[in-house]
Amino acid sequence: MSTETAAATAEAAVPPPAGWEEARSRVYAVGLAAALPAVSRPLADTDGHTLAEPLTTRTDLPAFPTSSVDGWAVRGTGPWDVIGRVLAGNTPAPLTVDGTTVEIATGAMVPQGTTAVLRIEESSRTSDGRVTGTPRPKPEWREPGEEAHAGEELLPAGTPVDPALIGLAASCGHDQLRVRRQPRAALLVFGDELLTAGPPGAGRVRDALGPAVPAWLRRYGCQVRPSDVVGPVADTLPAHVAALRGALANADLVCTTGGTMHGPVDHLHPALEALGADYVVNTVAVRPGFPMLLARLAGADGRVRFVAGLPGNPQSAIVALVSLVAPLLAGLSGRPVPALPYATLAEPVPGRGAYTHLALVRLDRAAGTAHPLRHVGSAMLRGLAGADGFAVIRPGTTGEAGARVPVVPLPLLPGERSW
């Protein structure tokens, strides 16, 4: 069989590309079906994880009546005789006699029998040491359960853990949280033409994805160790099979760069076949990034692992990350897929016919506008370095200036809130 005939046969065997939105839904569903197990972790070790159970409070919040000002806890009408002081962290004796008061600090427990709290700056002392003043009509303390009642669900399972959530959990009395184990990811870099140091030249190009993709994966909440990044892997089928088998032994997700087509040194598809993988998605109708894929393998332990094939062109690889890897990781973590925000195009963006076009944009958050960038070829990274995300131009449409379009945000650090 000639080279041309073999290429034509391989091309004919590839199914039609999945629509971009369909591919994301499909990938999320398989990720959710393989959601990672729940583990208990100390609060200080939960940032960037995902709640595996709803966050509930162990007590009323606040748990007891708490003074919201510095002043005087008084009983009855004044002037009042001072009989003590209440500081935060103590349980005070009740006020049982009208005309008495105790000095009270912000955050201290309000004594039983208190009828009002008089602010310190609105009080005065008589010559014989008694306290006078007019309390405000509204109580100057927080009632038990004002924020939440014991056992109340505050946040659902699937909520990303960030510093605000950690503080809330601590205020509820939690020392640990049940969270999803973070996905462990590995990266295999394919391509004999790649250099790992120094400037490109003499027909060889610098590997830009080996250093960058692990950082993107960490921003999606993955664990990626230096030993989990391997490459360049030799352009042979045995080397590809061995590298994939080794990475899959420890990783929940293995990302690969390059080799997603059917060229003479593209060995990813045959390697996946040799390992018994099945495709969740094999090519996506999106530009750039069309030859992306996600495959699924069942390990000897029964646990499902995934291989995400990222195209070798750098921007195309990042399109594959936001298109397939992001929804997969949301599913594995038990999170809902975040709703895409919308922005108004400040300039026109061309469509790509029957394909979804993901166009790099910079956002003006104050104005709510998206500005297309230059230097956005699939092999370029200059535009990506100044981008906030990708504007989604749906198939069969063009992005006219003034149109409201979805935007796929680039990932932030774990725990950071999106725009």
Describe this structure in words.
The protein is α/β, with parallel strands linked by helices. The protein has 8 helices and 27 strands. The longest helix has 19 residues. The relative contact order is 0.14.
Quick summary of this structure?
Belongs to the MoeA family. With 419 residues, this protein is an alpha/beta fold. The chain has 4 domains: 17-24 and 182-332, Molybdenum Cofactor Biosythetic Enzyme, Chain A (3-Layer(aba) Sandwich); 40-60 and 146-180, Molybdopterin biosynthesis moea protein, domain 2, CATH 3.90.105.10; 66-142, Beta Complex (Molybdopterin biosynthesis moeA protein, domain 3), CATH 2.170.190; 342-409, MoeA, C-terminal, domain IV (Beta-clip, Beta Barrel), CATH 2.40.340.10.
List the helices and strands and how they pair.
Elements: H1 3-13, E1 18-19, H2 20-33, E2 38-42, E3 55-56, E4 66-67, E5 71-75, E6 81-86, E7 100-104, E8 116-119, E9 123-125, E10 131-133, E11 141-142, E12 153-155, H3 163-171, E13 176-180, E14 185-190, E15 194-195, E16 205-206, H4 209-219, E17 229-233, H5 237-248, E18 253-257, H6 268-274, E19 278-282, E20 284-287, E21 293-298, E22 304-310, H7 314-332, E23 342-345, E24 356-364, E25 369-372, H8 382-385, E26 389-393, E27 404-409
Parallel strand pairs: 1-20, 6-7, 14-17, 14-18, 15-16, 18-22, 20-24, 23-25
Antiparallel strand pairs: 2-13, 3-12, 4-11, 5-7, 5-8, 9-10, 19-21, 21-22, 23-27, 24-25, 24-26, 26-27
